[in-house]
Amino acid sequence: MKRFHVHVGVDNLDASIAFYSGLFGQEPSVVKPDYAKWMLEDPRVNFAISHKQTAAKGIEHLGLQVEDERELAEVYGRLEAAGRPVLEEGATNCCYARSEKSWIADPDGVVWEAFLTHGEATFYGAGPDMAAVASVNAAADACCAPSAATAKPACC
């Protein structure tokens, strides 16, 4: 069963943890010095926040988290069918987790990820440059636009 994912950049991690814990009626399942995550069942969502000096505040990206390889292949097929360049990040460490990921952006530059988590990691990781994912996808209709294959992830 798939789970909706939302990642929000915040200014004050402690204040945001307090706010979202009250909003969701539960404490986060993961808390790190720069990151927190709630794995909610109602609604079924993986909601994460992070505080990074270089990241924009607000919604950083949205995504679909899957539970097995079959669902990952299904969602990857949907990314391909969406008709936009896909950045296949592959195996990576991001958000204190080991995952298999691909990225896409909608025509207006909203960044989405599709991923399968394989376990925990001891460090945050960097992930791809969200602006690069958005710009590659936003330029998909332009003549001579760079392909997603030329976009390189910032980590791994």
TrEMBL record:
<dbReference type="InterPro" id="IPR052393">
    <property type="entry name" value="Cadmium-induced_rsp"/>
</dbReference>
<dbReference type="GO" id="GO:0051213">
    <property type="term" value="F:dioxygenase activity"/>
</dbReference>
<dbReference type="InterPro" id="IPR004360">
    <property type="entry name" value="Glyas_Fos-R_dOase_dom"/>
</dbReference>
<protein>
    <submittedName>
        <fullName>Glyoxalase/bleomycin resistance/dioxygenase family protein</fullName>
    </submittedName>
</protein>
<dbReference type="GO" id="GO:0046686">
    <property type="term" value="P:response to cadmium ion"/>
</dbReference>
<dbReference type="InterPro" id="IPR037523">
    <property type="entry name" value="VOC_core"/>
</dbReference>
<dbReference type="Pfam" id="PF00903">
    <property type="entry name" value="Glyoxalase"/>
</dbReference>
<dbReference type="InterPro" id="IPR029068">
    <property type="entry name" value="Glyas_Bleomycin-R_OHBP_Dase"/>
</dbReference>
<feature type="domain" description="VOC">
    <location>
        <begin position="2"/>
        <end position="117"/>
    </location>
</feature>
<keyword id="KW-0223">Dioxygenase</keyword>
<dbReference type="InterPro" id="IPR049789">
    <property type="entry name" value="ArsI/CadI-like"/>
</dbReference>
<keyword id="KW-0560">Oxidoreductase</keyword>
